[in-house]
Design a protein that fits this description.
Elements: E1 7-11, H1 25-43, H2 47-51, E2 54-55, E3 58-64, E4 68-70, E5 84-85, E6 90-94, E7 99-104, E8 109-112, E9 116-125, E10 142-157, E11 165-170, E12 173-187, E13 190-203, E14 210-214, E15 217-221, H3 223-228, E16 233-236, H4 242-255, E17 258-261, E18 271-277
Parallel strand pairs: 10-11
Antiparallel strand pairs: 1-18, 2-9, 3-5, 3-7, 4-6, 6-9, 7-8, 8-10, 9-10, 10-12, 11-12, 12-13, 13-14, 13-15, 15-16, 17-18
């Protein structure tokens, strides 16, 4: 297992032979080329590998205040804290004063601020073996597509694979977090992008252009500037407003609260385990008595 921290977790829930066509010195070259070709073929994701995907799941690690969940038909769905669920095709709504935090089975954490409407349009991932479990790297590859209608979210995905896709659609464009930590907000002043670390790209409507945002940068794109394909404001990311700082720090913490382990069936979502520090079990008992 790649995770080196000491933790304790609780479960939540037809070929033929290759003939010799050359003799002498050329034989060694043919064998070398054949070996290299086989190695590249084995490492590269082929068409069959790309198609083998399963539904990814997630866990709501914590929340403050009510959170509404609705399916594509608008029917209310029940999602309980610290219980695994399938997030695809769900809409998440937080009223003013509420927020919630989630961890996905690809290792990405999501924080939803108050007064936010967000949809999970798609979430698929490739199955992974048990030796790939951990927090340091994404255990396989995945496609996660969100749609932010209004409000504020934080994403923490420092472990994301280079070939995975983490996409957020907004009213005027689409953005992709390539790897890192970012806070995304859409309000009456437009789209606010704060990249804490890593890299993010914003694509204007109809893919007419794009903007790159790196760690330590802030940009704002208003509805008017999006139509002109221009940034309304760009500056270095200095002191964060307290609400935004608390949101992204709590989102990063949510990443370490759930460990997803490989499912032996291979066709079912990974198994979720809540992680508890081993120090928790070293606490003194609050009871003034002991059982003998």
């Amino acid at each position: 297992m790649r995770c080196t921290r000491q933790i304790i977790w609780h479960r939540i829930g037809s070929g033929g032979r290759v003939g010799s066509f050359f003799q002498g010195r050329s034989t060694g070259r043919v064998v070398l080329v054949a070996c290299l070709t086989g190695l590249i073929t084995a490492l590269a994701p082929g068409p069959l590998q790309a198609e083998v995907q399963i539904d990814g799941n997630a866990v709501m690690t914590s929340r403050s205040g009510p959170v509404d969940f609705r399916d594509a038909a608008g029917t209310e769905r029940s999602v309980q804290p610290r219980k695994a669920f399938l997030p695809a095709e769900l809409e998440w709504i937080t009223p003013k004063g509420s927020q919630a935090f989630f961890t996905f089975s690809n290792g990405t954490a999501l924080g939803i601020g108050d007064a936010t409407r967000l949809r999970c349009l798609e979430y698929r991932q490739r199955p992974f073996p048990s030796e790939m479990e951990g927090f340091e790297y994404e255990p396989s590859t995945s496609v996660l597509t969100l749609e932010l209608e209004s409000g504020r979210i934080a994403l923490a995905a420092p472990q994301l694979s280079a070939v995975s896709q983490l996409v957020v659609r907004v009213p005027h464009g689409t953005l992709r977090l390539h790897r890192g930590i970012a806070v995304i907000q859409y309000d009456e002043d437009g789209l606010h992008l704060r990249v804490i670390e890593g890299n993010l790209s914003y694509h204007y409507p109809d893919n007419q252009g794009r903007e790159f945002v790196s760690g330590g940068q802030y940009i704002r794109i208003s509805d008017q500037s999006a139509r002109r394909q221009q940034v309304a404001e760009r500056r270095s990311l200095e002191d964060l407003p307290s609400g935004i700082e608390r949101l992204h720090l709590a989102t990063q913490h949510a990443r370490t609260r759930v460990l997803f382990k490989a499912n032996a069936a291979g066709t079912e979502p990974p198994q979720a385990f809540m992680v508890v520090s081993s120090d928790y079990y070293q606490q003194a008992s609050p009871r003034p008595y002991e059982f003998k």
